[in-house]
């Protein structure tokens, strides 16, 4: 049977399947066994309590949903006292996600969350509805470098940086995050978007803009993961449009060491564990002994093949 | 209908009728049910009956399921649709949903035929609560709100609690669930807009009389802001506790995404609660107008 375990730096995970921040919580234990997941990823937390954005917070479009939640939460103290213990009832590593509009506060958050029980600090520097200097640092390399450096200096925990697909050149941003000391790059957050209702001429979301989430985005994020993985030496986690085991395989072939899953868990609450089962069966069917063999295993060094032959040839 | 997980070649985590339960310890789940019937009850509403795996039947009145609706037009329906359980028949292994055909999701649901499979997730949320001290309750519902309140009458009957049901609708033909409330031994008062019997003044007079007669140990409502405000006002004035089932757009249904929040007022402070997790049933006195 295939060995599904992966390592993200020093963090050991039983398999490469993790939930995506904000689309998951310990409450999913009502439907699935959380101990089977590669990691547990908490919703992004801010320092002070926040109510978040006006409703409606979600709308369907022809090809996916747009959503804008606005990072509601009860603040870091409540998070440490009440939410961390909920996650510690389960065994997978706990990844906490943080966000702030200022570099100093970002560093403070990372410092205050460097407590036993927290295994990874993920800095969400890419919330699409924040502006470039106000929390969406990952739109520009200088801002990325500055904020990641400050967070790095504030914590010894493994530090993951979640990047934005809205940046013009994600490769240079990824390199800036690596240089600043990130241990892993999480690619990507959601695509900034807009829906206007034609019945009343108003934006469909209470916050006007929202992040687009759709399996249609997978090829775009996959391309980003591929480009970034080629340029950096730290691990990459691919997030965007994963709905089945083959999508996990595809991200790993592009160079990702693991994936994150959001929307599919709304669609099918049992999706995460089903995808793990499927991934195992997929590897076993092909005699793959270790899932890590897939990382970066895309065959693209021999591209002079006739395109039709390439498209139809087996593995 | 695309169902990513059950379309999988290798495994299917949803539980199916007649197969061993894959997640026996979980309070909720994802279930592939068999459609038994899906008939119009009037020009706007349909009643869907499903055969479900046993764990889905642990649903309580006021809880809901999240339904993966078929497409009405070939294009994707991206999100599940929340629907409260209308009837739970544990002996037969059946669940029923009473729903209004409105947008794409419910139009897709309307296409389900006997023999089709239907993926539902749940039961989710906190349902209605009956205090053992209550002997007489008043249930006030309008439109589709009656679908949510109907199983409460079932629960009250099982607990020997008397129900007065005030059923409000636009017209007499659209009053639903009357048979179900009758059958369960409730006193039914149907009101409608056509003859103005559903006006707030008239409903207020009915409620005042029930309070005066000692027939209102608790209030329950769903489906109308106007009626909620009325029950809130009268409940406060006369010290009658009350519960309301509320609605909001949802994504996860489990408490993770914070898409389904609404504002409540608790001890003078405005707070947000998740309809799917802290609700959908809330204390009437903590609600604020929307
Ligand atoms: C806890 C709960 C229980 C419910 N029980 C019932 C029931 O028993 N019978 C019934 O007919 N209806 C019920 N509803 C309302 C039902 O969910 C909506 O009518 C349905 O989602 C509309 O979907 P649509 O595709 O037809 O409409 P569309 O307008 O096309 O839907 C677009 C989006 O908005 C959401 N939406 C639209 N209206 C509502 C609403 N009122 N509440 C929540 N989300 C909405 C949809 O889910 C979808 O995501 C309930 C809602 C909640 C929250
Ligand atoms: C409702 C919702 C809330 C989200 N909240 C957060 C968040 O708090 N922090 C974050 O880093 N990403 C957040 N995201 C983005 C997801 O983590 C993920 O990057 C995105 O949904 C793409 O993955 P998917 O295609 O598998 O859904 C959110 C996404 C959704 C749908
Ligand atoms: S629908 Fe996700 S928190 Fe309620």
Features:
heterodimer; A: 315 residues; alpha/beta; TIM Barrel; eight-stranded parallel beta sheet; four-stranded antiparallel beta sheet; B: 290 residues; Elongation Factor Tu (Ef-tu), domain 3; Rossmann fold; 2 domains; eight-stranded mixed beta sheet; six-stranded mixed beta sheet; 5 helices; 32% strand; binds flavin-adenine dinucleotide; binds flavin mononucleotide; binds FE2/S2 (inorganic) cluster
Kindly describe this structure.
The complex is a heterodimer of chains A (315) and B (290). Chain A has helices at 75-87, 103-112, 141-154, 170-179, 218-231, 245-253, 263-267, 271-285, 307-312, and strands spanning 6-8, 11-13, 17-19, 40-41, 58-61, 64-67, 94-98, 120-124, 159-163, 184-187, 191-194, 209-213, 236-239, 258-261. Chain A has 315 residues and is an alpha/beta fold. In chain A, strand 1 (6-8) and strand 2 (11-13) form a beta hairpin. In chain A, helix 4 (170-179) packs across helix 5 (218-231) and helix 5 packs parallel to helix 6 (245-253). In chain B, strands 1, 2, 3, 4, 5, 6, 7 and 8 form an 8-stranded mixed beta sheet that branches. Chain B is globular and about 55 Å long. The mean pLDDT of chain B is 92. Chain B contains 5 helices and 16 strands. Chain B has 2 domains: 7-124, Beta Barrel (Elongation Factor Tu (Ef-tu), domain 3); 128-245, Nucleotide-binding domain of ferredoxin-NADP reductase (FNR) module (Rossmann fold). In chain B, helix 4 runs parallel beside helix 5 (225-238). The longest helix of chain B has 14 residues, at 145-158. Chain B is α/β, with parallel strands linked by helices. The complex binds flavin-adenine dinucleotide, flavin mononucleotide (FMN) and FE2/S2 (inorganic) cluster. Flavin mononucleotide sits between chains A (20-23, 43-44, 67, 69, 71, 97, 124, 162, 189-190, 213, 239-242, 261-264) and B (251, 257, 259).
């Amino acid at each position: 049977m295939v060995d599904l375990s992966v390592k993200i730096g020093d963090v050991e995970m039983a398999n490469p399947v993790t939930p995506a921040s904000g689309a998951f919580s310990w409450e999913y234990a009502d439907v699935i066994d959380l101990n089977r997941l590669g990691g547990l990823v908490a919703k992004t937390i801010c320092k002070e309590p926040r109510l978040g954005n006006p409703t409606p917070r979600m709308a369907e479009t022809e090809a996916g949903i747009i959503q804008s939640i606005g990072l509601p939460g009860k603040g870091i103290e409540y998070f440490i006292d009440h939410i961390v213990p909920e996650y510690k009832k389960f065994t997978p590593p706990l990844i906490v996600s943080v966000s702030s509009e200022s570099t100093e506060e970002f560093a403070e958050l990372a410092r205050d969350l460097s407590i036993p029980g927290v295994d990874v600090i993920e800095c969400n520097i890419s919330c699409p509805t924040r502006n470039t200097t106000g929390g969406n640092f990952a739109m520009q390399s200088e801002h990325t470098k500055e904020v990641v450096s400050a967070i790095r200096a504030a914590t010894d925990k493994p530090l993951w940086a979640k990047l934005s697909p809205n940046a013009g050149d994600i490769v240079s941003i990824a390199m800036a995050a690596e240089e600043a000391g990130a241990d892993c790059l999480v690619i990507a957050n959601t695509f900034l978007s807009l829906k206007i209702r034609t019945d009343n001429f108003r934006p469909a979301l209470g916050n006007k803009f929202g992040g687009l989430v759709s399996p249609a985005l997978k090829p775009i994020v996959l391309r980003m993961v591929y480009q970034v993985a080629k340029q950096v030496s730290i691990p990459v986690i691919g997030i965007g449009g994963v709905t089945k085991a083959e999508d996990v395989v595809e991200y790993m072939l592009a160079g990702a060491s693991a994936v994150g899953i959001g929307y599919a868990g709304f669609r099918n609450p049992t999706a995460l564990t089903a995808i793990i089962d499927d991934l195992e069966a997929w590897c076993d069917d092909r005699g793959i002994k270790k899932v890590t063999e897939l990382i970066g295993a895309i065959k693209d060094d021999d591209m002079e093949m006739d395109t039709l032959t390439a498209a139809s040839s087996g593995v | 209908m695309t169902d990513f997980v059950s379309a999988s070649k290798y495994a299917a985590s949803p539980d199916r009728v007649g197969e061993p339960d894959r997640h026996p310890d979980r309070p909720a789940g994802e279930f592939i049910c068999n459609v038994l019937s899906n008939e119009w009850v009037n020009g706007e509403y349909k009643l869907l009956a499903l055969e479900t795996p046993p764990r889905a039947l642990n649903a309580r009145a006021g809880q809901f399921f999240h339904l993966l609706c078929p497409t009405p037009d070939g294009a994707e329906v991206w999100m599940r649709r929340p629907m409260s359980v209308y009837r739970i028949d544990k002996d037969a292994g059946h669940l029923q949903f009473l729903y209004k055909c409105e947008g794409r999701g419910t139009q897709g649901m309307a296409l389900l035929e006997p023999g089709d499979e239907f993926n539902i997730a749940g039961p989710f949320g906190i349902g209605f609560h009956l205090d053992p001290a209550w002997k007489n309750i008043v249930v006030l519902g309008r439109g589709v709100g009656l679908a949510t309140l109907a199983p409460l009458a079932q629960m009250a009957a099982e607990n020997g609690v008397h129900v007065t049901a005030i059923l409000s609708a636009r017209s007499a033909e659209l009053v639903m669930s009357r048979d179900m409330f009758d059958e369960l031994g409730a006193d039914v008062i149907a009101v409608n807009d056509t003859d103005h019997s559903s006006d707030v003044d008239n409903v207020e007079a009915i409620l005042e009389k029930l309070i005066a007669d000692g027939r209102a140990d608790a209030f329950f409502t769903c489906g109308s802001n106007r009626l909620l405000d009325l029950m809130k006002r009268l409940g406060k004035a006369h010290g009658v506790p009350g519960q309301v089932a509320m609605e909001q757009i949802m994504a996860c249904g489990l408490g993770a995404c914070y898409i389904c929040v609404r504002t409540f007022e608790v001890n003078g402070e405005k707070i947000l609660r998740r309809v799917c997790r802290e609700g959908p049933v809330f204390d009437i006195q903590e609600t604020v107008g929307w």
